[in-house]
Prior knowledge:
The chain is elongated. It has one domain. By secondary structure, the protein is mostly helical. The protein is 67% helix and 0% strand. The chain has 5 helices and no strands.
Amino acid sequence: MKNLTAIESKLKELFKNTSFECYQYEGFETAEELIEHMQEEISEDEVIYYSNAMKYLSENDNSLTESLGLAHELGYTADNINSELLATLLQQQNLNEELSELNSQIEECFEE
């Protein structure tokens, strides 16, 4: 049986100073379980309140090109787009990209 405490310690260090620092990553026995759980959390993550959305968009997509492109790809039209939706779509994409970059390192934590 794997030493989950050692794995959790490695994961804590890996996620330090990332967007996933506050995510739940304890109690998983495989990297696949953890990655799937994190993907589910990302898909449920939302940017709420206009001010939070505008701040996120101004810091990450001030021209709105990327977030509007995401909305278009998902079939949204101008009449059902708002700042919270755009910020949520962009944030979810950014988190998924960050998680993808960490996948091999997450797997390594479970292999040792």
